Amino acid sequence: MSVLELFLRIIVTVGWFRRGTDDYFVGSYKPVLSKMSTGLKVPLALLCWVGLLCATIKAQTPPQVVEKPSKNDLMIQVVRNPDTPLELRRANAQALLQDPQAHPGLIKIFQTRSDNEDVTAKIIICQAIAALNDEPVIDQSVQAVPKSFIEPLFQSLLSGHTELSSWAAQALVKCHNGVSERLAGLVADTSDTPAHRLAGIRALELIIDSKAVLTLAKLLNDDNTRIRSRAAAALSNMLYLPEPLDNEQFLNSTLPQLRKMNKPAFLLWLMSRQKARLRDVNLRQQQDKQETARWRERFFQAQTEKFDLLVSPDEKLKFLKGYLIDQQEGLLRIWALERINGWCETASVRVGPIAQQLVELLPQFIVDNQPQVRRLTALALAQLDYKIVHPTAEALLEQLEKETEPAVQAALLSALGTLESVPALWQALKLLAEDPARQVDVVVQEAVRSVGKICGAQAGAISAEQIKQITACLAQSYPRGPNSAVLRSEWVQAMKRIAEQEKFRPQASKHFKKILIQALDDPDPGICSPAVYALSELLDREVLPLLLTEPRNLLDNKDNEENTVRFATVRFAVVAAVEKFGGAEHLTPLRRRLDQETDPDVVLRIQGAFLKILESLGLNEIYQWALQLQTAGDKEEMLSVEVVRILWDKITKVKAAGTAIELEHEKFALSRQAEIAEQKNLPLQAVKWYQKLLALKVPEEHKDNYREKIIHLAVTNDSKEILQAAQAAMVEVIKRRPTVLTRIARACDALSLGDDKQLLRRAEIIAALIVPLPSQALPSSEVARGWQKRASETALALIEQQDKLLTETGKENPEAIKILARLDVRLTGYPSFDAPVEERRKALEKLRSIIQSAPEKPDSGADTKRTPKTNNNEQKKPAKIPNTKTP
């Protein structure tokens, strides 16, 4: 090994090149040395010895220690660094203010030249000092802002830089009390520049002290207009005055009050003025908001009126499009959608051609960034015709899957439920299966409601396996908390809709039965009532024992009057179940409940159920109930009437089938029908029922009773048809009951001869019921004379009446002439109604003379009304009345 190689190996070993290993040496240096000449190797060896010597000396010399910057220095650098975010610079400045050792460094920043970077740093320090009251002071014994800061802050105040000066003023407020005196001197020095004095006023304005107020008040007389104006504005701000004061106002109003106050009193007084100012500001803001709301309301009202005045649907839609598409203001778009929702309630829009245009327009707003717009859009689409809107269901469902606003979710579910979208069913079930802690009531309500709607309308589109999933999900998610009454009601309503579908009933009975039976005992009628309906579908007739057996017996509320009122809907549902499945054994409980019931809807439902069950019974059972209800009143009166109708219908059907009917049943039904007709003031109908009674094989005494009823109805009602029926009855009844004449006489005597209408009625009764009777039919000559007198008086009154009409109008009453001819057959040869008036008057006068001159014949009955007999069975026919047209 050569000397050079030895030196190189030593150098590598001690680490001069720090890369030496034998392998490295062999691989790197040896090839190079082998190519060197001897003349080069000797100088190189000397250089290596020198290098080794230097390395040895360097290794023995101790290293020099470089001083690191302190933490405060680094923080000060952050404050001064313009590239650091402002919030971080302020945070470092506030932290430095808490450390007295850092204060010199901060003060040094104030003493640097005022370039933009240093001005920003100074402003940041001033901001940190101004915010000291808002920061906790760790060491209360340390003054956060010592006197050493006052001078730099004054220099910044007077720097002429507006923002720096403003923040320096706010920082000076946090310094020692001596600041006030120095500021007072600054603003009072008229030799100083106005800019410096204005800066001092800016700082004094922030000091809450009566001395500062008095200092500023002195400036109200300053020669400089700007100083006076700024001082007045500062005083107004300090004392919370509505407008600046002048010197005279301050001396007269404010100064006397300040002289009476010590410092605490001044602070309290200032606080009260501040509160008053805040109240005024809040009041003004509230008034501004109210005024804005009023103007907005007026604008929308005007636009609504303009919209309502439009007649054409196309014009209306074009008007609203301007606020939906061209207008980005949220309130205007919401207003337009509200109008569309109201417009969609009309049938012409829901199914008309305009609906198709709305379906093309509205879906783009389902994804609007405003929740209220999305909600109103969904509600509007749900109101349009199913066939037209159904294509939008996919877009509604897509939005529902990503929607986060509960109100919009509820609207989308409502719309999808109305559209009966089967795919939406699974999204609704997914929401119901979520953790109850994450659920929102309004969303859950609409989800359950939509499940019920879709299952009720689209049963054919749901498979048996899906039915199983749906019913199981509803049963598992049924809410049972104490505050879940509204949700339970929605669940039971959905179960009811599902139970109404025959396809769902096996699974519904399996999953819902237990829940629904428990719901029968729920204190909320909104839950109990739909449970009754649902169980009626699932259990058929087996539901009745659950509803009517003690102690549950939902047909009776035994607790109190309040429960009776609240549970009316439950009783309505129970009665519906009884009507559907009940039999004769339920009629008595229904009648008992009817007597106690106060709700009009339930009363009608009980009556309907009672009659429907009764119609299914046999004739004899109906007859027995008709007997029981014969004297019923109040709420049972309707039952009494309807039971008789049902009894008669049953009798009619049985007779039509050729089956014999007991006479007592038929007689009872007819007599009760006649009585009911009289009670309802239907006399003609009553007469027809009495005529049917006369056709029965009943004793003559009973028939005479019916005839008297007919005659009574004839004389008490103005009906020619009833009078005709009474004529036949009169002929028969007068033979055995002449006292009937007394009733007729009383009725005729009660009618006034001076009243035209009553006169005609009296004449009709006598002509129909008395004149046709044979002479021997009257019981005595005295009775005959009485009727002769009534007939004559009535005839003369009619003649007088018609004569007066002929004289005044030239026309008589044709009906009165016909009645007069029936009343007295001696009116012969009466001319036609278009004959000369004098001829007609002479005919009337002739009859009057005959009546007035005819002597009374006590033994001949109504002889003045009759012609001499040609034989015992004939009498002269009445005069023929002209059958011409009344002129």
Q: Descriptors for this entry?
A:
887 residues, mainly alpha, elongated, disordered C terminus
Overview of this protein structure:
The protein is mostly helical. Helices cover about 70% and strands about 0% of the residues. The protein has 46 helices and no strands. Helix 1 runs parallel beside helix 4, helix 25 (about 420-430) runs antiparallel to helix 26 (about 440-455) and helix 40 (about 700-715) packs parallel to helix 42. The N and C termini lie far apart (about 170 Å). Residues about 10-35, about 135-145 and about 860-885 have low confidence and may be disordered.
Distance between the termini: 169 Å
The total count of helices amounts to 46
Give the uncertain stretches in residue-range form: 12-33, 134-144, 858-887
Secondary-structure-derived class: mainly alpha
Q: Estimate the mean pLDDT confidence.
A: 81
Task: State the shape.
Answer: elongated
Roughly what fraction of the amino acids lie in strands?
A: under 5%
Radius of gyration from the alpha-carbon trace, in angstroms: 57 Å
Largest sheet: none
Q: How would you classify the quaternary structure?
A: single chain
The residue fraction in helices comes out at 55-70%
Query: Care to count the β-strands?
Result: 0
